[in-house]
Design goal:
Blueprint: E1 3-8, E2 12-17, E3 20-22, E4 28-30, E5 34-39, E6 43-51, H1 53-68, H2 83-101, E7 114-122, E8 128-132, E9 138-140, E10 147-151, H3 157-163, H4 170-187, E11 195-201, E12 210-213, H5 218-237
Antiparallel strand pairs: 1-2, 1-10, 2-11, 3-4, 5-6, 6-7, 7-8, 8-9, 11-12
Length: 250
């Protein structure tokens, strides 16, 4: 399984992904799930992947090949006029790979299923963030839905919903995402460290800070321990429950 998060902030975009792949309890590996393509001063695109590893690796390889040798039928994402067109092209590539592997044609519940998060900026427009489905269609983040998750999403979602603020600094966004990932890692063994982190600042047209966060990272360990202690204290500080008068007891 996988867990990836992309946040859209006033300041730019922040991406975080785990690196664990799991084909059984005795077959756990580390694979990168975050990729980027840039034309300095003109565009930056970042992609995160979740799902069948063979499918996602094929999609990334095709994007790489077509960015180096574009063709009229297979143009490069480094030449698309907008992020929308880049999302459309990557969605078509994903659908193409799934269809080529599925014996009876592409279906959303196929063994070869994969989901992607695409974000970035092309000169002339603002940064944009997309969630691309296995069918090749996609949706875009907006004010009501300012972040996307793929993979094992349910454990890390509550803190994002409660604490996200579009005006937060990159540093605060990373703190928030680390809590989200820590909650997921503790609840699901198929998600694990190290984590990959990437930032992008509005109108910079270059990749921002990138960091790989290992299991022994001091800051991550502090966040994990402090968050657990804070939850315990918060629970203790809540009013005690009282049974209603006359309630039957067993």
């Amino acid at each position: 399984m996988t867990y990836c998060v992309g946040l859209r902030l006033d300041k730019g975009l922040v991406f975080m992904s785990d690196t664990r792949t799991n084909a059984g309890v005795d077959n756990v590996s580390v694979f990168r799930k975050m990729f980027s393509w840039t034309v300095p001063g003109e565009r930056v695109l970042m992609l995160m992947t979740a799902g069948n590893l063979a499918t996602t690796q094929s999609v990334v390889s095709l994007i790489d090949e077509r960015s180096k040798a574009p063709h009229e039928r297979n143009p490069s994402i480094l030449e698309t006029p907008s992020m929308f067109q880049a999302a459309r092209q990557i969605g078509e590539t994903l659908r193409e790979v799934i269809q080529s592997n599925a014996m009876s044609g592409q279906t959303a519940d196929s063994t070869f299923n994969a989901t992607l998060i695409l974000g970035g900026q092309i000169r002339g427009s603002e940064p944009r963030l997309f969630l691309i489905y296995p069918e090749g269609n996609f949706i875009e983040a907006n004010g009501d839905t300012p972040f996307f998750q793929i993979g094992e999403t349910k454990y890390g979602r509550p803190i994002l919903v409660r604490a996200y603020d579009s005006a937060m600094r990159f540093e605060d966004a990373v703190k928030l995402m680390m809590v989200s990932f820590d909650s997921t890692i503790k609840a699901n063994l198929s998600v694990g460290l190290p984590l990959d982190l990437q930032t992008y600042e509005v109108d910079s047209f270059r990749l921002g800070a990138h960091q790989r966060i290992a299991a022994d990272d001091p800051y991550y360990q502090t966040i994990s321990t402090s968050w657990g202690e804070a939850l315990t204290q918060a629970l203790k500080s809540l009013p005690d429950f009282e049974f209603a008068a006359g309630a039957a007891r067993r």
